[in-house]
Design brief:
heterodimer; A: 359 residues; Elongation Factor Tu (Ef-tu), domain 3; 2 domains; 8-stranded mixed sheet; 8 helices; 24% helix; B: 357 residues; Aminopeptidase
Chain lengths: 359, 357
């Protein structure tokens, strides 16, 4: 048996997650997070490489007999923007990358490029707007990123941009940008550093998840796992209904523990893996919840279709306000997700792949 | 040595001070103005007054510099579980609110607590039809402070103010971005003027006023003008800079000029005198048109007691009333210097020239 793993969220963990969350790594330009992953996983440098897509793949071989090859994926990329045209005077047109609601962009501080050049997305003064104008949402092509007078020398078209948000602890919660999926990246780093010996842990820090699970396609092919698990973040829509009705379509709830996927828009969670996760959680006394079956998708959607097919499942930290200037998670949910993943991996053997009777 | 205005302005942008709740910003300005004046006091409406005595024989004429220090923001109107409902204090376009970082000013056993929060949009399926497309009406927006219901219940009450939390950031080309540059940029300019005046002769008494409650109706300046009763007043506020989404009426190039307003609130003789000073000292000064009033403290000062002649200056600013307003520091300094030159050159009989025809 592996030693009891009891993760904590202290200053060191906060520092690492802050660096991950505050980094700028819009889909297609994940270098800043890739560098943090390499730095954190120096002990694995002989079994770590960056593939053609930009995924960072790390193999940790266990030592027991009959080891299962388990791929665990977490995506490094985040939604954001790309500068597309200079408009003079430090102003730039831009497009969004991934699912960003343009209503989240107006009046926000942003940062541009590898050097995090500060900018803002402003809008017309309310004094100059008409009532009719205020009833129309602003479209992306009406907005500009402003890096200041003469700023054209500091950034260039093609640069990626994202919200300029700093991770903060708010009581029992963490608030920061790109926690989808830097929490997954953080957790995967922790799992590697505490890798269970009963399995071969094949870690994939993937790229371009937000553009359609692209990195996971090639990562899963190369790692050729027996089973696949995506660690991601999923919406907690646990806000009040406008007329006080009970909110029954919350997807997940904060404080409900790790969210285990039965079905989303891309994957039917493998029944055996779902059972393995829920039974582990119950046995370990870890709170958990089902993610309400519905749309959306994680890297599992790419992994399960790899080669002849890979039984796959997803586990997510419930999070409010994904793809906005800042998401909000509970520290307890994050720790319980990490705990569950470690406990589940530690009790995994090949028997899980015995075909289940379909009932 | 010149007063270093940038750190002072940044420190003013890092505090709250909503209309009617100006204490936090007044506390930042007070020690700086105390250094640069002979006495300071607070008006019954919360404006800060700083008097620099002139060198002329008594009874000396008085000039008032008025710059409002209050901020627009939000206020808690309801609490639902751990979420807060909100309304606005001053003019806020609700389209800027989703995803906006804020601070809720709550109370913990009679001590003020600052709770960082964020304005959030509930998902569309939890809203009626008018909340599913287009900009979300303010009534559906919520604030989440990241605390659980039991904590929120203890710390937050209806009526607590909510300020914007955007940190000031220097952008390229000597520009600065942050919330409430409207109108703390002008408080900074007034401070530049006080600093310059502290090192040169001026015959007139100078009373700087950091006025309260401009964003809800000029109530602070109204009382201050009545109380101070200057011979004339310089009202300084921000004006619209050229920029994206600026609209056709917007004229001024940030960083290249400051403005003097021409319209119903502005005494033409003062306008001419200010322009002459700008010309003499080669300070670029453009004309801002406000034939029916400028929406600043000017009107409230103008109609105090038997009437006070007013001249208005403007600092061009982008994205007014958003938490990412932008100004050029050069313009702030220009405005401060222009006021100082103007005031230090005032002869004791200057008011004889401020006439109609």
């Amino acid at each position: 048996m592996t030693e009891k793993f009891s993760p904590e969220f202290g200053q060191a963990e906060l520092d690492l997650l802050s660096r991950l969350s505050n980094a700028l790594a819009v889909s297609g330009d994940e270098q800043e997070v890739r560098e943090i992953v390499y730095e954190q996983l120096q002990d694995f440098k002989d079994s770590m490489h960056t593939d053609a897509m930009g995924n960072v793949l790390v193999r940790h071989e266990g030592s027991g007999p009959n080891r299962l090859k388990v791929m665990v994926a977490a995506h490094m990329d985040e939604v954001g923007m790309m500068l597309t045209k200079e408009d003079g005077d430090g102003l730039f047109e831009f497009v969004v990358v991934g699912g960003v609601d343009p209503r989240q962009l107006v009046g926000k501080p942003v940062m541009v490029g590898r050097d995090h050049i500060p900018g803002v997305i402003g809008t017309k003064a309310i004094h100059l707007t008409t009532k009719e104008e205020r009833e129309q949402a602003l479209k992306v092509n009406a907005l500009r990123i402003d890096v200041g007078l003469g700023g054209s020398k500091l950034v260039e078209i093609g640069d990626r941009a994202t919200f300029s948000t700093t991770l903060q602890v708010l009581g029992p919660s963490l608030r920061g940008k790109a926690l989808d999926d830097r929490l997954g990246v953080f957790n995967l780093i922790q799992l590697l550093k505490n890798a269970p010996e009963n399995i071969d842990l094949l870690a994939a820090f993937t790229v371009q998840e937000e553009l359609g699970l692209r990195g996971a396609i090639t990562a899963a092919y190369q790692l050729n796992p027996d089973i696949g698990i995506a660690m991601d973040s999923t919406p907690a829509n646990d806000l009040p209904h406008f007329d006080g009705e009970e909110n029954t379509t919350h997807n997940t709830k904060l404080d409900g523990g790790p969210a285990i996927y039965l079905m989303d828009g891309a994957t039917i969670g493998d029944r055996r893996l779902v059972k393995w996760l829920t039974e582990t959680a119950d046995a370990e006394g870890i709170p958990w919840q089902y993610r309400q079956p519905g749309r959306g998708g994680t890297d599992a959607g790419a992994i399960h279709k790899t080669r002849a097919g890979v039984p796959s499942v997803s586990v997510s930290v419930p999070q409010r306000y994904l793809h906005s200037p800042a998401g909000l998670v509970r520290i307890d949910d994050e720790l319980n997700t990490l705990k569950l993943m470690h406990a589940a991996l530690s009790r995994l053997d090949k028997s899980i792949l015995i075909p289940q009777e379909n009932k | 040595m010149n007063f270093d205005i940038l750190p002072f302005l940044k420190s003013m942008l890092s505090v709250a001070g909503l209309s009617g709740y100006e204490a936090p910003i007044r506390d930042v300005i007070t020690p700086v103005w105390q250094e640069l004046s002979d006495k300071t006091w607070v008006s019954s409406h919360g404006s800060l007054h700083a008097m620099r005595y002139g060198e002329g024989a008594e009874p000396r004429p008085k000039v008032m510099i008025a710059a409002h220090m209050d901020a627009i923001g939000l206020m808690v109107t309801g609490i639902e579980k751990e979420f807060l409902r909100l309304t606005q204090v001053g003019g806020v376009d609700p389209r800027i609110l989703p995803g906006q970082m804020v601070i809720v000013h709550g109370t913990n056993s009679s001590e003020t607590v600052e709770l960082p929060g964020m304005v959030v949009m509930p998902p569309a399926h939890l809203l009626p039809k008018d909340g599913q497309k287009g900009p979300l009406p303010q009534k559906y927006l919520l604030v989440d402070v990241g605390l659980r219901e039991s904590e929120v219940e203890k710390l937050v009450r209806v009526g607590d103010v909510i300020s914007f939390a955007t940190e000031p950031r220097e952008l390229s080309g000597g520009t600065l971005s942050g919330h409430t540059l409207d109108n703390r940029a002008s408080v900074a300019a007034a401070t530049v003027a006080l600093d310059l005046l502290s090192r040169r002769k001026h015959l007139w008494d100078v009373i700087a006023v950091a006025s309260s409650q401009e964003e809800v109706g000029g109530y602070g300046a109204k009382g201050s003008a009545f109380d101070v009763m200057p011979d004339f007043a310089i009202v300084i506020d921000v004006t619209f800079a050229k920029g994206p989404g600026g609209g056709d009426t917007v004229l001024f190039d940030m960083g290249k000029t400051i403005t003097s307003t021409w319209g119903s609130c502005d005494h033409p003789a003062l306008y001419d005198a200010m322009q002459a000073t700008a010309d003499e000292y080669e300070i670029p000064l453009a004309r801002d048109f406000a034939p029916s009033g400028s929406g600043t403290d000017a009107y409230d000062v103008q109609i105090a007691q038997a009437g006070i002649p007013v001249v208005e200056l403007g600092i061009p600013l982008r994205y007014m009333h958003t938490p990412v307003e932008v100004v050029s520091i050069k313009d702030v300094k220009r405005a401060g210097r222009l006021m100082a030159e103007f005031i230090s050159n005032l002869p004791l009989d200057f008011m004889n020239t401020v006439r109609w025809e």
